[in-house]
What we know:
Layout: H1 18-29, H2 36-42, H3 47-59, H4 88-98, H5 119-130, H6 138-144, H7 149-160
Helix pairs in contact: 1-2, 1-3, 5-6, 5-7
Amino acid sequence: xxxxxxxxxxxxxxxxxxxxxxxxxxxxxxxxxxxxxxxxxxxxxxxxxxxxxxxxxxxxxxxxxxxxxxxxxxxxxxxxxxxxxxxxxxxxxxxxxxxxxxxxxxxxxxxxxxxxxxxxxxxxxxxxxxxxxxxxxxxxxxxxxxxxxxxxxxxxxxxxxxxxxxxxxxx
Length: 171
């Protein structure tokens, strides 16, 4: 179990931040993040074991760009991902929390890494945030509310094909 998902709407866990994974597993356990299959998996785990599981997946390292199990339509060539100019500002805002930089190194521990994540999963999460079906997160709802269907697809493809080795400080 290396944490690399082969299922379209299931995220990669490999290389994901410990604090983020632990918080999400605890949310599944106490049902604040409703998901019956995940609740069943974690309901009997102690908080210590949940932190151990999160550390295990973090230690698995980065997910390669164009992760296994993706269709040819969702992966690009080995060149860097491109993005429409109108979405460049959106990416900067996303990166403020989801990608490490000098001003946010301590803040980002509780947010997921988007680079290299499954395209379908990212698009589904953005749609859920947009439609307020996702954990009552007002910040993410406001970030996604003005995105159209094509914008979501483009952003999901951009992050799915972004090289996760660009990460600084994996925790």
